[in-house]
Amino acid sequence: MGTNGSTMLEPLRQGLPPVDPTAVSGSASCALPPRFDAVRGARTFTRSTLSQWGLDDRFDDVALVVSELVTNALRHALPEDPRGPEPEPEPPVRLHLMRWSTRLVCAVRDPSEDRPGGAFSPERTEENFDLESGRGLFLVDSYSDSWGWHPLAGRLTGKVVWALFLLHD
Predict the structure, then answer these.
(1) How distant, in Å, are the alpha carbons of 45, 101, 103, 146 from that of 67?
(2) Which tens digit of pLDDT belongs to each residue from 35-72?
(3) Which DSSP letter does residue 22 get?
């Protein structure tokens, strides 16, 4: 997959799903409120989107990964006191689902620039799997075909954590 994988995901750096209609057969996103019940909303959104795309059989794995990515974003990426002087103009966490003919990507954008999971990262080491903070990302690593993260580009602050699922005919 090499370079094709990275160019496919390049638009995520801008905080947007790819817009080339020839490349993407489906794309959907939703904003999530900075509350833990947003995880339930993310799962509901994922179920309805996968159903529209005829991918009901992938729901269990994808929903588990979506739940972990959203939970991590809510737990680690939001400011300590969400009751700031004025509400954010845009919800701080967004879930993107993108479908190509042979792959599905779920990506969660959040306002933190810290690497996901602290010590656990795609450059995995055995001892990292035992860390409490890395357990959710261990599940992401186990249930998806690959995953990664990168900071947003340009004027956007934060990062995108994504997981890739290969779709088989």
Answers:
(1) 11, 24, 19, 16
(2) 888 999 999 999 999 999 999 999 999 999 999 999 98
(3) T
- Going by their DSSP bridges, the two strands 159-166 and 103-110 should be labelled as antiparallel
* 57: CB partners within 8 A, 6+ apart: none
How far apart, in Å, are the Cα atoms of 161 and each of 21, 43, 97, 151? 23, 17, 12, 9
- What's the pLDDT score for residue 23? 64
CB 54 within 8 A of CB 22: no
Residue 130: Cβ within 10 Å count: 10
Q: Give backbone dihedrals phi and psi of 163, rounded to 5 degrees, phi first.
A: -135, 140
Instruction: Name the β-bridge partners of 106.
Output: 97, 163
Please provide the size of the chain in residues: 169
User: Rounded to the nearest 5°, which phi and psi values hold at 130?
Assistant: -90, -10
Strands of the sheet with 159-166, listed across from one edge: 26-32, 93-99, 103-110, 159-166, 146-151
Record the pTM.
0.76
What string of DSSP letters covers 59-115? HHHHHHHHHHHHHHHHHHSS-S-S--SS--SS-SEEEEEEE-SSEEEEEEEES--SP
Residue 28 CA to residue 99 CA, distance in Å, equals: 9
Instruction: Please give the single-letter amino acid code of residue 61.
Output: D
